[in-house]
Amino acid sequence: MSARPIPILMAEDDAMDRLLTEEALREGRLNNPLSFVEDGVQLMAYLRNQPPFEDAATYPEPGIILLDLNMPKKDGRTCLEEIQQDPALKHIPVVVMTTSTQEEEVFRSYDLGANSFICKPVDFDKLVSLMKTFNNYWFSIVELPREHK
User: Does the pLDDT at position 31 exceed 60?
Assistant: First the structure.
């Protein structure tokens, strides 16, 4: 595996969820670069290096995407479908991380190409534990594709 930390991109419209996830990752000792976008339009612009994300050094291709399903402008389901249909993006693992526990959402996410589906815990200690498990699985066990661009 590369010694360079794998960038994480989180698509999440809720500022508190972004803050708590960032803090949980820090508590879990995950040192990967973490970037945020607030809606699906920003997510797709980031992934395609479109304005205001055209500087690839500042906005590197993520090694993994944490995706909320319910975002403004363009929801996570639509983004997931676009990512899977784009040959330049479909290699990036997408982990759906949402508050929904509906079985229909789980099936639909996997049908659209999600690599994992995680229900966000509301308790911070459980979120820290989840992020430690996330870190171990995605960055110690799984072999992720190298940067594609």
Answer: yes
